[in-house]
Each structure stands twice: as C-alpha cells, then as structure tokens.
Amino acid sequence: MKEMISVINRQSAFIVLPLAVVSFFVFEWRFALSVIIGGLIGALNFKGLCWSVNSLLGIEKAETKMMFLSFIRLFIIFSVLVTLAALGILKAAGLLVGFTVVFIIIVKEGLLKSIRDAKKQDSGGLDG
Fold first, then answer.
1. Could you give the count of Cα atoms lying within 13 Å of 103 in the half-sphere of its Cβ?
2. What is the tens place of the pLDDT at every residue in 19-43?
3. First-to-last CA distance in the chain?
4. In the structure, what pLDDT confidence band is assigned to residue 128 with cuts at 50, 70 and 90?
5. Whether 22 contacts 124, CB under 8 Å
6. How far apart are CA 5 and CA 19, in angstroms?
7. DSSP conformation class of 59
8. Which of 19, 22, 56, 92 fits a disulfide with 62 by CB distance 3.0 to 4.6 angstroms?
9. What's the CA angle centered on 107, arms 103 and 7, to 5 degrees?
C-alpha cells in the first residue's frame, strides 16, 4: 500500500505542479495556489484514509473508530479551506482542478492494481 501511495503522490506532483505553473500565467496566483492546495488535500486525505484502514483493520469496533477519524480529518480539511477562503486566498475552481487530478490518479492506479491482481490470480489458478 505504501508503494501505491508513493506512486500516486509522485504522479500527482508531476501533473499538479506544472498545471499550477501554467495556470499562474494564464489565470492568477490564487488560482495556481488553489490547484496546489487541492492536490495536497487530495493526496493527504488519501494517505490518511489508507493509514486509518491499515491501522484499525481487525480491531474491535474498527468501523466506529474509522468513522470518527474520518470526521476529524474532514473537519480539519473544512477548517483549513474555510480559513483560506476567508482570507481570500482560494479559488474554488482551482481547488477543484487540483483535487480532481489527484482523484483521477487514485482511480487509475486502483484500476491498474486490480487488473494486475486479477491477472496474477488467473495465472496462479492455471498453474496450481
């Protein structure tokens, strides 16, 4: 799982950072910063979700604890976004662009991993 998180973070950085640089020249600095913030939030939220699932899986009342941690994580994200919006730093469209890029990369990597796992299982089933 750590390997997948690092692949997602690396690919997100390779797309979000150049996108932010281009948007800096096309739009304005707030839009570019919002793209970066959206990408960071997406990547950090995915990492936090993976951490909660890995650390709480198999313990008593894991679902309740994961839900509690998710609420805390969402509250922190909400607080940061509201604070930055109140300061006039965020642009909603830029935030959405950065978050969407990371989301698409997460979905793509998840699909690729499931295809690889299915191929392993199919080849293992024929050999065994």
1. 9
2. 999 999 999 899 999 999 999 999 9
3. 26
4. very low
5. no
6. 21
7. S
8. 56
9. 85
Measured between alpha carbons, how far is 32 from 97 in angstroms, rounded to an integer?
A: 10
Q: What amino acid occupies position 90? A: L
70 burial via Cβ count (<10 Å: 0-12, 13-18, 19+) = middle
**Burial letters for 1-31: b for 16+ Cβ neighbours within 10 Å, e otherwise?**
eeeebeebbebbeebbeebbeebbeeeeebb
pTM, rounded to two decimals: 0.82
* 4 phi/psi in degrees, rounded to 5: -65, -40
- Say which DSSP state 57 is in: T
CB proximity list for 13: less than 8 A, separation 6 or greater? 39
- If you average pLDDT over residues 41-59, what whole number do you get? 83
What does each C-alpha distance from 111 to 4, 61, 81, 118, 119 come to in angstroms?
12, 29, 30, 10, 12
Structure-token pair, residue 106: 């997460």
